[in-house]
Amino acid sequence: MQHDKMLVLAAILTIVLAGQVFLASQDKNLVGDERAHITAGTAYVQTGSLLMNAEHPPLIKYAAGVLLSPLRPVLPTESEAWQMGDMWGVSRAFVDRNLAIEGSMRFLARLIPLFLVIVLGIAVFFAARSYGPAAALLALLFVAFEPNIIAHAQFLTMDLPVTCFFFVSFAAFLAFSRDGGRKWLALSAVAAGLALLSKFTAFLLFPSLLFALPLLWKRLAGSAPRKAVFCVASIIVVFVAAVSILFAGYGFADMGVYDVDYKGYSVPVTGPKMFAAGMAWNARHESDGHYSYLDGVSSLRGWWYYYAVAALLKTPLPLLLLFSVGLLTLPFSKRRSEWLAWLGPVIVVFAFYSLFSRVQIGLRYVLIAYPFLAIIASRVVQLNAFKRPAVRAVLLILCAWIAVGTLLVFPNHLAYFNELVPRGEGHNYLLDSNLDWSQDQSSFAAWAKSSGIGFSEPSCVPRPGVYFAPASLLHGVVVDDYNLEREGLAINEARYCLTWLQDYEPFMRWRDTIFVYNVTELRSDESVCAGRGVILNGYAGRYDGTSLPLASVEYGGRTFPVKQTLVREDQPEVGCFLTGGKRRFSLFKDGDCFFLEIL
Questions:
Q1: How far apart are the first and last CA of the chain?
Q2: How far is CA 370 from CA 315, 503, 508, in A?
Q3: Which residue from 46, 149, 191, 404 could staple onto 168, CB 3.0 to 4.6 Å apart?
């Protein structure tokens, strides 16, 4: 009877998880990454070629193309973007060409992450069941009400699929290490292959599997050399099988050894040509870096603590608290080796992205770790203190906290920040796919039309008027404006110069991602151009246009005295200078506004 009740509760939680994902996804327009994936998947199915969008492996994109094939979407093969191989231009042209079926395409494509988040929830439940029914239900509850998992299950991107397959593969290998059984090893290998076919970062699975080897060593009988061979062989079996599945997904096309440049080093990569091309794209992305935003400052190189801060601000506090309790009590557990194994992927994922990755644009990059956070947090029910009624009451309160907090943010899970961040102020800490991925542009455009508000032309120069600014643009960070542009709400010309609006209070925050301002009077200290902390392509500074040479420059909340200035004689408003902080800036003029750029 108790078993039946447990399964009923698990089914209810799974339905709640799926319901949140499905209903919220219907409220969001296609984001730029989705357009690219759907377009690439359609091209794979219709042309048989994997040339488009080598950034990620083809599995999820191809699956989307298959699901969309009954709609017969038309590829813009005659467009200039197609001829040039411009992935983002092609994706825009593709949606423009298929506007009549855009809603159907979005619905069908998003069935893939919806299905996989259900698989993930079920996998977490059964993985935690060996620690008791209470632990299994608690782990599933954490997944069912984890805003970041729910948010990224709403979009056809690679983050939720790789999270699902990664977890299934690790959990199966752990079961094999603990209990034996070839079926678990086979499941681990297949899931690992699917993870690799979803996103290249799934390679982090293999160092994570090393944390399960102490369990395997303990289970095996025989001499130490024999145990060592068996442990190594188990990892190799999973690796070889997974890579074989990966190469099979590319059709074993043009197998060879290709040189990939990674941060100045030539690294040989063996496999299909398009696999090597994908590895090269990601290596180039890592080498070049990506402009990241954290707490009011943009950086090309990022910060080692970026993902730790992002997790601290965007993970529900009850989950963080219970994970901390589970982590701190691990040394006292009778099944210490097993719990340390569950901690392994968390360590590997956060360590890799914190120490080696310069692409810091969203918590989704470490989403892989979240099911493992849920497993470790569920460990609290095994503590002796859990037997006390007062402790159980506290746990129930924490569970209600995470559930209610997530339900209240519906359907805006991507913009979720925990109670450490004041409501509506998340944009001051994190941007991009942490908040503003352009997912609410269509709903905002519909509201703007129904409201009858006449927006003023976007202006770099502060002047009275009614303006709107996506959260990213408010800080000068480039956004995908496709859904606004096609509704006639142009923002291109204001892309780098609406930061002056930060000095005013918005009268409306559309889902905390788009802000609306009614500027009636200018601040008395407003300069001709450039609001505070102007950011251009991730670079920040301030210049009021009143004098040259510059006496000082503001950057990242600090003021640097200018030590040396070089100004062009033919254009006095253009020059470069070295500050006391040993930062070299370039000053240039665009229209009526001045901008600063780090050299």
A1: 69
A2: 9, 37, 33
A3: 191
Give burial (CB, 10 Å; 0-12/13-18/19+) of 514.
Answer: buried
Backbone φ and ψ for 566, nearest 5 degrees, come out as -125, 115
pLDDT band (50, 70, 90) for residue 492: low
| 69, amino acid identity | S
- Which residues sit opposite 534 in a β-bridge? 541
The model's confidence at residue 525, banded by pLDDT at 50, 70 and 90, is: very low
Q: For residues 316 and 323, give the distance between their C-alpha atoms in angstroms, rounded to a whole number.
A: 11
Phi, psi at 57, each rounded to 5°: -60, 165
DSSP track, 325-372: HHHHTGGG-TTHHHHHHHHHHHHHHHHHHHHT----S-GGGGGGGHHH
In Å, what is the CA distance from 69 to each residue of 106, 196, 336, 564?
Answer: 13, 24, 50, 61
- DSSP string for 260-329: EEETTEEEEEEE-HHHHHHHHHHHHHHHH---EEETTEEESS--TTHHHHHHHHHS-HHHHHHHHHHHHT
Residues in the chain, how many?
Answer: 599
For residue 590, name the pLDDT band (cuts at 50, 70, 90): low
What does the block give as tokens for 424?
Answer: 């509506």
Residue type, 132: G
- The DSSP code sequence of 467-508 is EEEEHHHHTT-----HHHHTTT---GGGTTT-GGGGGS--SE
Provide the sign of the torsion angle of the four alpha carbons 368, 373, 378, 384, taken in this order: positive
Structure-block tokens of residue 51:
């040339």
**Which has the closest alpha carbon to 568: 589, 544, 546?**
589
Dihedral over Cα of 439, 441, 442, 444: its sign: positive
* CA–CA dist 87, 496 (Å, integer): 24
> Which residue in 541, 520, 517 sits closest to 594, CA to CA?
541
10 Å Cβ neighbour count for 309? 15
In the block, which residue shows the tokens 């009549």? 100
Q: Which of 466, 467, 405, 477 lies closest to 435, judged by CA?
A: 477
Give mean pLDDT, residues 303-311. 94
Tell me which residue has tokens 């919806």: 114
Handedness of CA 147, 150, 156, 161 (dihedral sign): positive
The pLDDT tens digits of the residues spanning 335-384 come to 889 999 999 999 999 999 999 888 898 999 999 999 999 999 999 998 88
User: What mean pLDDT, rounded, does the chain reach?
Assistant: 86
Secondary structure of residue 176 in the 3-state scheme: helix
Mean pLDDT of 5-31: 95
Residue 122 buriedness (CB in 10 A; 0-12 / 13-18 / 19+):
middle
Q: Which of 269, 291, 256 is nearest to 200 (CA)?
A: 269
Using alpha carbons only, give the angle 109, 124, 147 rounded to the nearest 5 degrees: 60
Other beta carbons less than 10 A from residue 213's beta carbon: 21
Cβ atoms 211, 340 nearer than 8 A: yes
* DSSP category for residue 430: B
Which region, left, alpha or beta, applies to residue 161 given φ > 0 means left and ψ of -120 to 50 means alpha?
Answer: alpha
pLDDT, tens digit, for every residue of 537-571?
Answer: 333 333 333 334 445 555 555 555 554 444 444 44
